[in-house]
Amino acid sequence: MQVLFATSEAAPLVKTGGLADVSGALPAALRREGVDVRILLPGYPAVLRHLGGQPIVLAEFDVPMLGRAALLEGAMPDGVPLYVIARDDLYARDGGPYQRADGADWPDNDRRFGLLSRVAAMLSQESSPIAWRPDVLHCNDWQTGLAPLFLQLDGTRHAPTLFTIHNLAYQGIFPADSLPRTGLPWDVFRMEGVEFFGNISFLKGGLQTADRITTVSPNYAREIQHEPLGFGLQGLLSWRAKDLTGILNGIDLATWDPGTDPLIPRRYGVDSLLRKDANRSALREVMGLQAVKGVPVAGLVTRFAHQKGLDLLLACVEQALTLPMQFAILGSGEPTLEHAFRDLAARHPGRIGVRIGFDEALSHLVEAGADLFVMPSRFEPCGLNQMYSQRYGTPVVAHATGGLSDSIVDATPEAVAAGEGTGFLFHEPTPPALLAALGRAAAAFGDRRAWRRIQRSGMARDFSWDAAARRYASLYRAVTGTP
Ligand code: ADP
Predict the structure, then answer these.
(1) pLDDT tens digit string along 1-30?
(2) How far is the CA of 87 from the centre of ligand 1 (A)?
(3) What is the residue range of 79's domain?
(4) Nearest to 71 by CA among 4, 20, 149
(5) Band of pLDDT at residue 102, cut at 50, 70 and 90
(6) Does the residue 215 lie in any domain?
(7) 18 CB within 6 A, ligand 1
(8) Relative to the CA of 308, which ligand 1 atom is closest?
(9) Ligand 1 center to 21 CA (angstroms)
């Protein structure tokens, strides 16, 4: 099985979000399953630097409406084969992959990702400019959304396509006059094509024409078929429901392992949970929290964004302090939320610690040192921290949405008795519901034996990429009709 994995970012070379983590980990896991996956990336400066001064030029070719491009060959740092589109006028610029340094979108993103989509399609056709042919083209998010559409329009023999949605909130919307710039004909500018409320949507192009669609958790696959999480595409997604599958992302088990983590003061495992206390002491010290016996520390590591439901926490955190409970909060993002959390910490010294910024090392200490972890997200396609937390013996209080529902088992008395409960879910995204779940967690924390069971059940769960890779591999077989 040969698969071309087309993506606009891949860790560790270029990362803005979860797509990069998946692109950095899933192909390697698939290769362990025996699938010959190769990554296709645009030639951003960081990618070209990684390839070195004299990269191998595999081919140079003309792309309809988009000019001449070269395809370079290399490998990701972990050895996964890599193809890179060299087009310095489109990709070799300072700033982010989608935005200038000042945060504004690059004005030619239609051409930049039109080219990525078009080259992905060309490499998946019989007329490909290179010898290696994929059996499946695996596209990711709107940046590659036009690839399945180009294949359908060309009508020549080509690989079947799988399209993965990492976050439906980002859709690649451009004005109608982008069409000729991307090389698409005007007759796709209709409701059944790429037209979306008078604009064009790259994402819609992919969702209309890919053979199969996946998203990053089974529950999110259901949620996006309805308002409000369908973001205007719920009709199309429910029409395609039989081709839509949710596959929960994995996590990097080597980086997130409490038994070997170099970023925490005391390493521990499922049979040495008492050692976690030393990490709690270190976290309290860093966050300026009082050392009080029997009071659990609730941790958060998050982008400060509406999606993450932090306003729900702000509305009930002062009541939560009386449970009693302390808070250790690490995050950055929207300035109003940053202010609100700074103020909160100033009003409750010793009980609420807040660190504004992006701090990888501190995020590990929060996972290891907190007693419980809080994720009040309004929506969460998959989410990572709830999986890290369970692995670190830090039960999660979370809104039952998206991948959070799929990866946390609510610790009802029955589930705890059965050794299955791993966290505390609440169903309405409201402050009282969050407060009630924090109350349940505080009560469970007071019951030493029950708490240990919950911790151990979480630590025993398999969140490996290998489990996810097996699911993708079986979809590749399904879409190619391979037994
Ligand atoms: P999203 O991609 O929507 O931000 P995820 O849960 O999928 O949410 O992934 C977020 C990742 O970024 C996690 O690994 C989390 O630990 C990390 N992260 C978020 N904010 C910070 C921060 N301020 N400092 C360190 N790591 C952070």
Answers:
(1) 999 999 999 999 998 888 998 999 999 999
(2) 31
(3) 2-250+465-480
(4) 4
(5) confident
(6) yes
(7) yes
(8) 3
(9) 11
Choose the residue to mutate in 19, 301, 463 for probing ligand 1, maximizing ligand atoms within 8 Å of C-beta. 301
Q: Which residues pair with 100 in a beta bridge?
A: none
Do the domain assignments include residue 333?
Answer: yes
* Same-domain pairing of 25 and 159: yes
Which amino acid is it at 257? Answer: D
Q: Is 455 in the pocket of ligand 1 (CB under 6 A)?
A: no
Q: Is the dihedral of CA 136, 54, 23, 166 positive or negative?
A: negative
**How many angstroms separate the Cα of 219 from the Cα of each of 250, 308, 320, 407?**
15, 17, 29, 10
Nearest to 391 by CA among 257, 245, 281: 257
264 located within any domain: no
Q: Of 419, 127, 367, which Cα lies nearest the Cα of 255?
A: 367
Counting from 1 in the atom list of ligand 1, the atom nearest the Cα of 355 is: 23
3-state secondary structure of 178: helix
Pair type for strands 297-304 and 326-333 = parallel
Beta bridge partner(s), residue 129: none
Instruction: Examine the domain organization and report whether 401 and 297 are in the same domain.
Output: yes
The pLDDT assigned to 228 comes to 92
Looking at the structure, do residues 387 and 354 belong to the same domain, yes or no?
yes
Query: How far apart are the CA of 381 and the centre of ligand 1, in A?
Result: 13
Q: Which residues pair with 4 in a beta bridge?
A: 38, 137
Same domain, residue pair 304 and 426: yes
What are the pLDDT digits (tens) for 245-283? 999 999 989 889 999 999 999 999 999 999 999 999 999
Task: Indicate if ligand 1 lies below 6 Å from the C-beta of 405.
Answer: no
For residue 413, report the distance from its CA to the centre of ligand 1, in Å: 31
Q: Looking at the structure, tell me whether residues 38 and 178 fall in a common domain.
A: yes
Taking CA atoms only, the protein residue closest to ligand 1 atom 18 is 302
Residue 363 CA, closest ligand 1 atom number = 25
In ligand 1, which atom is closest to the CA atom of 330?
23
> Which phi-psi region, left, alpha or beta, contains residue 314 (left: φ > 0; alpha: ψ -120 to 50)?
alpha
Specify the residue with its C-alpha closest to ligand 1, atom 9: 384
What pLDDT sits at residue 17? 82
Q: Which residues contact 7 (CB under 8 A, 6 or more apart)?
A: 19, 23, 39, 40, 41, 140, 141, 143, 144
Same domain membership, residue 138 and residue 36: yes
In a domain, 261, yes or no: no
- Same domain for 310 and 442? yes
Q: Residue 43 sits in a domain of what CATH number?
A: 3.40.50.2000
Question: Count of domains in the chain?
Answer: 2
Which of 358, 366, 378 to mutate for ligand 1's pocket (most ligand atoms within 8 Å of CB)? 358
Q: In this structure, are 234 and 277 located in the same domain?
A: no
| C-beta of residue 344 within 8 angstroms of C-beta of residue 314 | yes
